[in-house]
Design goal:
Helix content: 25-40%
Oligomer: single chain
Order of helices and strands: EEEEEEEEHHHHHHHHH
Strand content: 15-25%
Number of helices: 9
Distance between the termini: 27 Å
Strand order of the largest sheet: 1-2-7-4-5-8
Number of strands: 8
Shape: globular
Length: 291
């Protein structure tokens, strides 16, 4: 089976891209390859990142899926075939159980982007995943492209062109893009009322747009932005005081940061610095993909 890629799908986006790259937790049991999404890539302005992760362990490994505000397309290859899923945003840590030899492609869309890939509002997919065939895009076409013998980067570029054509139909993208980027730039320290004043829309309307396009509230999205920034800082600077990192990343104080950590990843910031995710009780954590 073959598919024609129209000239329209080859047009490269030219608008600016927000530099939000959520944390990827790399364990020694995985091999991780990031796919280049530089200027000219079909999804340059719409994805946070694209990466491939494969288990190189001899036993099942758990990959912690950290809240990042992103809707994600995940494709898994088990050696016998390829399955695809559209995953909504999450409001707490989830787990992905990866069997030996399994490989996953993750396309993480920037917050507020990707709602056109599903039928209905983004909030209906929060903490859930659906087979890519059940979404608002031709999932069979995407899977057929990924089953080709082209190199991985080329196959991802081909499906990216298909996805971009669908995403050009997204409504309200300029309002939600402005609001999500303002929250990101302020490290989660901007009120919805301020966004309302800047955009000319009501706070209630912005709340509804987040529910429809992001899947979570502006308040929770702000918490996730602060969480992501602080986790990166903790891993990069192991000597800096946690209270200083908390303030630098937009929290009121260390206690405020700990409340967010316990809510979103089930541990304190101190426990995260000491153990990362090795001491988390995964029996109490839900699966990232469960359909």
């Amino acid at each position: 089976m073959s598919f024609v890629i129209s000239r329209k799908q080859y047009l490269a986006p030219t608008e600016a891209r927000v530099q939000y790259e959520p944390l990827i937790f790399e364990d020694e049991g995985f091999r991780v390859n990031k796919i280049d999404v530089s200027f000219g890539h079909p999804l340059y302005t719409t994805v946070a990142d694209i990466f491939y992760i494969k288990s190189i362990a001899e036993e099942m490994k758990i990959l912690p899926m950290i809240p990042d505000g992103c809707m994600t397309m995940a494709f898994v290859s088990d050696g016998e075939g390829i399955s695809g899923y559209i995953c909504g945003v999450t409001d707490e840590i989830k787990k992905l159980e990866v069997c030996p030899g399994e490989g996953y492609i993750f396309i993480r869309f920037l917050p507020g982007v990707g709602s056109s890939l599903i039928d209905g509002d983004a909030c209906k997919l929060t903490n859930k995943a659906v087979p890519v065939e059940a979404g608002g895009i031709d999932g069979r076409q995407l899977l057929s492209i990924l089953e080709r013998e082209n190199g991985l980067a080329e196959r991802i570029r081909l499906i990216s062109k298909v996805i971009r054509t669908r995403m050009q139909e997204e409504p309200n993208k300029y309002l939600i893009k402005y609001c999500t980027e303002r929250i990101f730039q302020s490290q989660g320290n901007i009120k919805v009322e301020t966004l309302a004043d800047e955009t000319g829309f009501t706070a209630r309307h912005i709340d509804k747009m987040f529910e429809r396009c992001v899947g979570i509230s502006p308040k929770l999205y702000s918490q996730i932005i602060r969480l992501q920034a602080s986790m990166n800082r903790i891993m990069e600077d192991k000597e800096r005081l946690l209270v200083d990192i908390a303030v630098d990343c937009g929290f009121f104080d260390h206690a405020h940061m700990n409340r967010t950590y316990k809510k979103l990843i089930r541990c304190s910031s101190g426990e995260f610095r000491k153990n990362l995710f090795t001491k988390i009780d995964y029996d109490q954590i839900e699966k990232y993909i469960s359909v």
